[in-house]
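Morning run. Coffee first, then this:
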Amino acid sequence: MLTIGKLAAIAHVSPDALRYYEREKLIAPTAKSDGGYRLYDEGAVRRIRFIKQAQNCGFTLSEIGELLTLRSQSSACCGDVRKRAIEKKLQLESKIRAMKAMSKALDGLVAECAEESHPIDDCPILSALDRANGIR
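And here it is:
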């Protein structure tokens, strides 16, 4: 059995992260020691690594909870997980497109502001942002 500190060290996360995962019902201690310390089994290491890898793929903790629930359902199949992975990929692609548009907009604003010595009241970037909000 592992204490929260040992589990955190093995899984390369902080004890606070483990407590948060516990509050989010992603992990649960297997038992408590006589002193009231949380105790985890070796399966918790695998579960934490799964959580971290899923986060690296862009899944939120809520979505990770759904994946973990699916894993424990005998009626679930790989297609259920695949569907969620496809949905996440589409969400990420949408965010990438939005960020590229923001980057392009900033490129235009930076190009407008070629003269860095303009007084702040004449800053083309601030003026363009004001115009976008209907301020003139």
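Residues 119 and 126 are 11 Å apart (CA to CA). Good start to the day.
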